[in-house]
Write a structure and sequence with these properties.
Strand content: 35-45%
Helix content: under 10%
Radius of gyration: 17 Å
Order of helices and strands: EEEEEEEEEEEEE
Largest sheet: 6 strands, antiparallel
């Protein structure tokens, strides 16, 4: 645990994430800095015209976003909803795919809060990919003892096992 249970949002270390094209975000995990193990929390700063992450749906972790400043759109399944400073935005596990997009003229700043677990399955409807992670610590995908990302093909349970 950190020495103090308080951190100012401006003191959260941010790192660049994304692909430098459509996906650009300055992002920093808050939970570990405060000693939280079962609750994820991260600061996101997305420049105009960009998205932090691809359109996706978590099947284990709930997410809640609090818009701190800026405006944008929330892709929620087949809907697109406007979001602005002060809005609280939900992404319940196993419901609809979601994505926040900065459609404003300034940075879109928000906090993402999530449940954490040792395993997660995420699907990406725009690309048909599926991500699977297991053995995670503190909800950190990078700590997984197994992770895979790809497109799945149906197979019988015993397919390829008689080698």
């Amino acid at each position: 645990m950190s020495e103090k249970p308080v951190i100012n949002i401006d003191d959260v270390p941010l790192m660049d994430r994304g692909n430098g094209k459509s996906f650009v975000v300055r992002w920093g995990r808050v939970g570990p800095a405060l000693g939280l193990n079962a609750l994820g929390c991260a600061v996101h700063v997305v420049p105009p015209g960009k998205k932090a992450f691809p359109f996706h749906r978590h099947h284990v972790m709930d997410e809640l976003f609090c818009i701190l400043s800026g405006e944008g759109q929330y892709r929620w399944g087949d809907e697109t909803l406007p979001v602005k400073t002060g809005d609280l935005v939900a992404a319940p596990a196993g419901s609809k795919a979601h994505q926040l997009i900065n459609t404003g003229t300034g940075d879109l700043r928000y906090i993402g809060i999530s449940s954490t677990g040792a395993a997660e399955v995420v699907d990406y409807p725009d690309s048909g990919k599926v991500g699977v992670m297991a053995g995670m610590k503190n909800g950190d995908f990078r700590s997984a003892t197994y992770s895979g990302m790809g497109r799945m093909a149906k197979a019988d349970y015993y397919d390829g096992e008689d080698k």
